[in-house]
């Protein structure tokens, strides 16, 4: 009986730990969002935007907010960014 409980507990811990490891860290998410932004702008043939940095902060649950810094026409511009991430997919929006 004790062995069965230990085995079930071990299986539960393995499943839980594997599930937690599939989420991107905030830094990894910021990198993926930045790649998505550049790809989107390339598809839309937007030119003259160079991404300098994107920093995200985890607000709550699946919500992140951040600051996107770009170089446009030789000038540094900052934007506020909103990101929703469910652990598998994300969406982003530039608010400013």
Task: Kindly describe this structure.
- This protein is an alpha+beta fold and 96 residues long.
- The chain has a single domain (23-94), classed as Nuclear Transport Factor 2, Chain: A (Roll), CATH 3.10.450.
- 40% of the residues lie in helices and 40% in strands.
- The protein contains 2 helices and 4 strands.
- It has helices spanning 2-21, 26-43, and strands spanning 49-60, 63-72, 75-85, 90-94.
- It has a 4-stranded antiparallel β-sheet, covered by helices on one side.
- The chain is elongated and about 70 Å long.
- The N and C termini lie far apart (61 Å).
- The mean pLDDT is 87.
Task: Supply the key terms.
single chain, about 100 residues, alpha+beta, Nuclear Transport Factor 2, Chain: A, four-stranded antiparallel beta sheet, 2 helices, 4 strands
Question: Beta-sheet strand percentage?
Answer: 35-45%
**Can you write the helix and strand succession as a string?**
HHEEEE
Could you list the spans in which at least 5 consecutive residues all have pLDDT below 50?
Answer: none
CATH architecture: Roll
- Biggest β-sheet description: 4 strands, antiparallel
Count structural domains. 1
CATH topology: Nuclear Transport Factor 2, Chain: A
N-C termini distance = 61 Å
Helix content class: 25-40%
Write down the Rg. Answer: 19 Å
Q: How do the strands line up in the largest sheet?
A: 1-2-3-4
Given the C-alpha coordinates, what overall shape results?
elongated
CATH class type = Alpha Beta
Secondary-structure-based class equals: alpha+beta
Number of strands: 4
Separate helix tally: 2
Overall pLDDT score = 87
């Amino acid at each position: 009986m004790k062995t069965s409980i230990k085995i079930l507990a071990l299986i539960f811990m393995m499943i839980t730990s594997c599930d937690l490891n599939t989420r991107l860290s905030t830094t990894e998410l910021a990198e993926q969002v930045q790649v998505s932004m550049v790809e989107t702008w390339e598809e839309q043939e937007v030119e003259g935007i160079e991404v300098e940095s994107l920093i995200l902060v985890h607000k709550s649950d699946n919500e992140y907010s951040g600051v996107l810094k770009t170089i446009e026409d030789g000038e540094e511009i900052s934007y506020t960014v909103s990101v929703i991430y469910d652990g598998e997919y994300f969406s982003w929006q530039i608010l400013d």
